[in-house]
């Protein structure tokens, strides 16, 4: 389980709210992983991936518009990080999920937790300090 801490707070209410939603999605994946009663998790994994795709597009667009509005000079390099994330999510091979579902959930979780911790604490902090 990944828990929101004040360290993740950027002080931009809407973006903090959106980041908390990413924590919720990660926790959905964690709960699915720990669910010993779900034998076939494929459909739920696909739902989580779709939600992650849709939500990150929404969030990244919002965040990039915000960075434009404050004249953040590193917008293009930040956008590259967002594009890399989207590419990774879009390149998930749904056929491979069925072979080892729990391993796939772990991979998604590790990727998402790593992204959340590094991106929010390091990369997003840069534009938050410019406000």
Automatic annotation (TrEMBL):
Function in brief: Oxygen-binding protein. May be involved in a storage mechanism or for delivery to oxygen-requiring enzymes. The oxygen-binding site contains two iron atoms.
Organism expressing this protein natively: Thermoanaerobacterium xylanolyticum (strain ATCC 49914 / DSM 7097 / LX-11)
Assigned protein family: Belongs to the hemerythrin family.
One Gene Ontology molecular-function label: oxygen carrier activity
Oligomer and partners: Monomer.
Keyword entries, A-Z: Iron, Metal-binding, Oxygen transport, Transport
Binding site for Fe cation 2: 63, 78, 82, 119, 124
UniProt: Fe cation 1 binding residues: 19, 59, 63, 124
Location of the Hemerythrin-like domain: 11-128
Name of the molecule in the record: Bacteriohemerythrin
HAMAP family according to UniProt: Hemerythrin
């Amino acid at each position: 389980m990944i828990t929101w801490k004040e360290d993740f707070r950027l002080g931009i209410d809407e973006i903090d709210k959106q980041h908390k939603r990413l924590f919720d999605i990660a926790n959905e994946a964690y709960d699915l992983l720990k669910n010993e009663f779900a034998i076939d998790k494929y459909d739920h994994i696909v739902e989580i991936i779709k939600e992650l795709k849709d939500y990150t597009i929404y969030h990244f667009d919002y965040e990039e518009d915000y960075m434009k509005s404050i004249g953040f000079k590193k917008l293009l390099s930040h956008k590259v990080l967002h594009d890399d994330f989207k590419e990774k999510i879009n390149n998930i091979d749904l056929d491979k999920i069925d072979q080892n579902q729990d391993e796939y959930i772990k991979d998604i979780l590790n990727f998402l937790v790593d992204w959340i911790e590094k991106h929010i604490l390091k990369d997003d902090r840069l534009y938050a300090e410019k406000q």
